[in-house]
Write a structure and sequence with these properties.
The protein is α+β, with helices and mostly antiparallel strands. Helix content is 48%, strand content 14%. The strands form 6 sheets. It has a 5-stranded antiparallel β-sheet, with helices on one face. The protein starts with a strand and ends in a 14-residue tail after the last helix.
Length: 695
């Protein structure tokens, strides 16, 4: 069977860069689905995109559909035929739906019941007759965050469509969409090759487009940009930091990349480096250049869209002029902000509303200060670290009132660090101000300093408690206040620094600073906050690659602080499928099940009536002391080794002792003994949650 390449190109006005990757992914997936559904075999699917086009190129597409032959089950025989054997309406309707005559229906038995079946056969059609509708379907079902309509309200796309190209080999595929009819014409680069070009064959697409000054392959274009930026930086005696997000964006802003080097006055290097890089990357899409020590140089690299060499000087001058204006503004903002110390901006935070029911950011600042003090008390942190944390909590949001952060919101925290240092604050305070927003995104590092960690936890905890207290709880995909990220940030921060505070106590502290300000009962909020934290801990452990049963076991431990969870998880995952775990799993599970509904009681050793009870009591008492000592030093492998031998006296107990006897006092005493056994084991975790792999 003949195979050819199939091309579909949708030419548009410039599509926003952030739309491109999701759109190309959709195009690839939907094309594979449609080709398979239409019984069209193919070798490979590739998608390509530039600001002005989305393209699908299918290689090795068969010249016709596969023939269809499928057996369809219909109604039961007793429903398909009446008592005289004549077909009923059910049989006739089934035959009609399958495109066969009633006489061609046949009977087969299925699970003891006879049904009528139809053999539906359909010869494959020529691929060229299938592709028009397939192309229309692909174009119609691409989704974009903010689509436009221009030709008709029923037709929506990222940007207005200007041409459609569709070829199967050398055959032209004609379909209509958005008021346009497809053909074999395409368009090259808007300025370097603006005329329409007739494609002879779909397989020539990539080669032809390069001749028309369009690199349609995003991966190839990205490589070209990377190589050009690195080469240009090296010529300047420096190196470029290729921010991945910026590289992705620039890649979809051009069709034919060409690096252009520009410069700015060295006097602007007096501005904090983060301001310069933000102005270049976030606002102008430039690549900054650094020396070997990471210091920024007075140069930048921008990627133009195929600028002709004759106009490079103009392009360079234009970009330099734009950057110079932005840096001049930044220097003015910086100088104005530095005219007073950072602390004088704090009271101005009364002008920013945090939440309508809870007042301003200034009031939030007071709560965060109290929370930072309380956390230091809970964690036995004092001296200079506590002093730095409390001072940083007071100054953390002050930079929101500066000119620089108003112009560059992404620099909040960073500018606070610089202004604090210039105001004479200690280095630990300045660093904590910057760190308190961390982690800012998935994969970001938590605060590096203890003071920064305290302020970060206090700030996020206050926001979470406020939202939960006002009923603003995340549901499904809705999380407008990014509370999941905040909770996960708290979990990561506590874990990174080994800060041992229980999740219950954390929730309680968050609420204490908001006493009397919330619309929900404190106990309900505390419960919801705790459950929310547990879910984030579970997610955090999953991200670390822990097995689900190990996670559930440690979450069931008699501890709820993050370092404790982590230490127990490390011990359990090393033991989970060992013979020692197998040895103690069944007896402990019996203990856990028997005491599940037991409220607790006092053990009376004198009331034991069997030697097995006495032996178990003696063994667990000795083990409890050893377990407590090992757990205090986080030696949980040692805890496991101490608990493992208890399997023998537990087995003997269950072999010789009936727990649920009629005598209430004896039953309670025995249940109390088992509760003690369970309590000692819960130092390590709820081992009944462990599911060992079958061998």
């Amino acid at each position: 069977m003949r195979k050819e390449s199939f091309l579909l190109e949708i030419g548009t006005e410039e599509i926003p860069a952030r739309f491109m990757d999701p759109a190309l992914k959709q195009l690839r997936e939907r094309a594979a689905e449609e080709l398979t559904a239409n019984r069209l075999s193919f070798d490979d699917i590739n998608v390509y995109g530039t600001p002005r086009r989305l393209a699908l190129l299918v290689s090795g597409l068969a010249e016709r559909q596969l023939d269809l032959s499928e057996k369809k089950k219909g109604p039961a025989v007793k429903a398909a035929f009446d008592a005289d054997g004549d077909p009923t309406n059910a049989a006739k309707g089934f035959a009609r739906s399958q495109g066969v005559e009633v006489a061609n229906l046949f009977v087969e038995e299925l699970d003891g019941t006879e049904y009528v079946f139809a053999l539906r056969e359909e010869p494959g059609r020529e691929t060229t007759s299938v592709l028009p509708m397939l192309c229309q379907t692909l174009a119609k079902h691409l989704n974009f965050p903010k689509p436009m309509f221009w030709e008709h309200k029923d037709i929506r796309f990222a940007r207005p469509i200007r041409w459609l190209t569709a070829l199967y080999g050398s055959d032209e595929i004609n379909f209509t969409f958005a008021g346009l009819t497809s053909g074999r014409e395409t368009t090259g680069h808007r300025f370097l090759s603006p005329d329409r070009f007739v494609l002879a064959d779909a397989a020539d697409y990539l080669t032809v487009m390069e001749k028309l000054a369009v690199i349609v392959d995003p991966a190839k274009r990205r490589t070209i940009i990377t190589d050009q930026v690195n080469a240009a930086a090296a010529q300047l005696g420096g190196q470029a930091t290729l921010d991945e997000d910026l590289l992705d964006e620039v890649n979809y802003l051009v069709e034919f990349p060409k690096a252009v080097v520009g410069s700015f006055a060295a006097e602007y290097l007096e501005i904090p480096q983060e301001v310069l890089t933000t102005a270049m990357r976030a606002h102008q899409r430039y690549f900054p250049v650094f020396d070997g020590q990471g210091n920024i140089l007075p140069h930048f690299i921008t990627i133009s869209n195929g600028t002709d060499d004759a106009f490079l000087k103009n392009v360079r001058a234009g970009n330099e002029r734009v950057l110079r204006a932005r840096l001049s503004d930044a220097r003015f903002f910086f100088e104005e902000d530095c005219k007073k110390p950072l602390s004088e901006y704090v009271d101005q935070l009364d002008n920013i509303v945090f939440m309508e029911q809870l007042g301003s950011i200034r009031k939030k600042t007071d709560r965060v200060v109290r929370l930072a003090e309380a956390l230091c008390g809970e964690l036995n942190i004092s001296g200079e670290i506590k002093e730095a944390a409390v001072r940083a909590a007071f100054l953390a949001k002050a930079d929101l009132m500066t000119h620089m952060v108003y112009e560059f919101p992404e620099l909040q925290g960073t500018m606070g660090m610089h202004y604090a240092a210039l105001s004479g604050e200690k280095e630990a305070v300045s660093r904590a101000i910057e760190e308190h927003y961390a982690p800012r995104f998935a994969g970001d590092d938590p605060p590096a300093s203890i003071a920064g960690a305290i302020v970060a936890v206090a700030d996020k905890l206050d926001t979470m408690a406020a939202c939960f207290g006002l009923g603003l709880i995340p549901s499904g995909s809705q999380d407008p206040y990014a509370l999941r990220r905040s909770a996960l940030g708290i979990v990561a921060t506590l874990s990174a620094h080994g800060l041992a505070i229980s999740l219950e106590r954390l929730a309680s502290l968050g609420l204490s600073a908001l006493a009397g300000s919330l619309s929900r009962p404190d106990q309900d909020v505390a419960t919801d906050l705790y459950d929310f934290f547990v879910q984030r801990v579970r997610f955090y452990f999953q991200e670390k690659g822990l097995r689900y049963d190990v996670i559930e076991a440690v979450l069931g431990a008699a501890v709820s602080d993050l370092p404790g969870f982590l230490a127990r998880a490390d011990a359990l995952r090393n033991k989970v499928d060992t013979p020692e775990m197998t040895q103690i799993l069944t007896p402990f599970t019996r203990v856990a099940n028997l005491t599940r509904e037991f409220a607790g009681g006092t053990i009376v050793p004198e009331s034991f009536t069997t030697q097995a009870e006495r032996d178990l009591y003696e063994a667990v008492t000795v083990a409890a002391a050893a377990v407590e000592k090992a757990a205090a030093h986080a030696r949980f492998d040692e805890v496991f080794e101490t608990l493992a031998p208890l399997s023998r006296p537990i087995d003997s107990f269950f072999s010789e002792v009936m727990v649920m006897v009629d005598d209430e006092s004896i039953k309670t005493n025995r249940l109390s003994l088992l509760a003690l056994v369970k309590e000692v084991f819960l130092t390590l975790g709820d081992l009944s949650k462990i599911v060992q792999e079958k061998k």
